Amino acid sequence: HYLAxxxxxxxxxxxxxxxxxxxYFGSDIHKDMMKLSKTYGDVYSVKMGSRISVVVNGVNAIKxxxxxxxxxxxxxxxxxxxxxxxxxxxxxxxxxxxxxxxxRRQFAHTTLRGFGFGKTSMESKICEEIxxxxxxxxxxxxxxxxxGAILNRSVSNVICSITFGKRFNYSDPKFNFIIxxxxxxxxxxxxxxxxxxxxxxxxxxxxxxxxxxxxxxDLKKFCKQQIDEHREVFDPDNIGDFIxxxxxxxxxxxxNKDLTDDQLKHTLVDLFSAGTExxxxxxxxxxxxxxxxxxxxxxVFNEIDQVVGENRLPRLDDRKNLPYTEATLLEIQRxxxxxxxxxxxxxxxxxxxxxxxxxxxxxxxxxxxxxxxETTIWPDPDKFDPMRFYDEKNNALKKSxxxxxxxxxxxxxxxxxxxxxxxxxxxxxxxxxxxxxxxxGAKKPSTDGVLGLTLVPEPYQVVIRERSA
Length: 469
Ligand code: HEM
What we know:
By secondary structure, the protein is of the alpha+beta class.
């Protein structure tokens, strides 16, 4: 066993001197970490290389950490990987928890709300983007296609219109380049995970690191260009998007110059990447599960067809009348668990968790996967079954507290409301208008997922056919 940093520290598996406990982990580290909790308990420690992290599993321990003791665990840890592209931990997602960060998050949150984030006024923007997507689907009918790239572009345009004040054409080469860059960046970031903890491996991964840094630099450059373009035509009487609002606020700043261009650049990278990959990946899980379960797809279609019909697209107002569709979306999120670990947290001060002592600075890994795949809560958890969230007798949605795809507390996903609106509007519109199926003779795609920064389905193909055609 390794040397615990304090008395009454969470127990954990044995670790080797340099690599620590890495021998327990394969490419499905989310599953391996959940397995260890069965031996060591909901809160246990692992030696990640030379650093000791605490892994938190199960809804009770996770709520204690994120909600009840939310202030104690709201920091982000030191990370060599983050420092490669963001050495000062700027922006929102990487930011260390302090007053300046709180003001930044508060400002970003309020401003996005002002532009309709989480409000129904956002609805028309999302629906406009959906109609472009549906047109594209109509052109691509009847032949096997991978919908991944086009879903990324479509979802990304929603956040682009809020932050940059414009949408991009699906065939715009600059836009396509940056969306692909972002996808690769997430993917490479996932493979670099161990380099954070095993510095001696870095010299053997030079090309991977170079690739990662180039992708990160391209993303930052793209966001910086958007800022420069906005600054050139800035008009304080015409604030049309997030960048304008930020620039206006910068001008109001007295002495404390916290809202800098670099902060804005990193905030934009956060919004652009978190706002694209996550929602698009959830929709990719959704379509995959629908082609694998055509009877469920038909049931969702029938419900929408009865309530909405085929002459208009579903609206947020319809949600309350579509409990089975909603239940299916919740089950897609549970099953896909696209953020199996949230982002890493860190103890801001000496504190405790599940009765154990946790010293200041300890890195905390939150396993949202462990909530969504716990056998005692979700019988046969690897089975996709919307009935878990559907009360058939009362034709109503059945909520569960063992469900936390957006995490919780101080660092809860900042785009939760927007994401929920997008998921409902995109999913219900796609199912309402089209039938999705596997290409004839195609092998059933796997539902294991590949772990990068998010858990994404392996690429798969579908055939799209318009329902009313
Ligand atoms: C289905 C879609 C989404 C899921 C499942 C999701 C999930 C998450 C999770 C698990 C976290 C980490 C929370 C933590 O560290 O405890 C997070 C953080 C974050 N998300 Fe999302 N997210 C989604 C969509 C979005 C969207 C559309 C945006 C919008 C712009 C967004 C913006 C952010 C930001 C800025 C953070 C960092 C928050 C912080 O560090 O304080 N997310 N998200």
